[in-house]
Amino acid sequence: MSGMIGCISFSELIGKYVNLQCQVMAWVACAASTISSANPGKFLMLQFMMSTVSQVGQSISNLLSQVQSMINTAVRNQRSQ
């Protein structure tokens, strides 16, 4: 894939998603450990970040579903020929 501009491999995508999850979990752990000094803005930001991670995960899931559907269609078309 070195000649393709703007492409990302599936393993890179999952790796970046896992890193994002780990980063958000570290922020949640930090906020939980300093609960006495936390403010509402910090919790709103964490909630937003967790929501964003969930949306990215859902997008990856939808992408996999679409790829699986395309593969199934291609296999079905091969069988009918």
Task: Briefly say what this structure is.
The chain has helices at 10-33, 40-80. With 81 residues, the protein is mostly helical.
Q: Would you mind describing this structure in some detail?
A:
- By secondary structure, the chain is an all-alpha fold.
- The chain has one domain.
- Helix content is 80%, strand content 0%.
- The chain has two helices and no strands.
- Helix 1 (10-33) packs antiparallel against helix 2 (40-80).
- The protein is elongated and about 70 Å long.
| Secondary-structure element string | HH
Q: How would you classify the helix and strand content by structural class?
A: mainly alpha
User: Can you give the helix content as a percent range?
Assistant: over 70%
Q: Summarize the main sheet.
A: none
Low-confidence stretches: none
Tally of extended strands?
Answer: 0
Average pLDDT metric: 88
Number of domains: 1
Tally of helical runs: 2
What is the 3D form? elongated
Give the percentage of residues in beta strands.
Answer: under 5%
| Cα-based radius of gyration, to the nearest Å | 19 Å
State the end-to-end CA separation: 31 Å
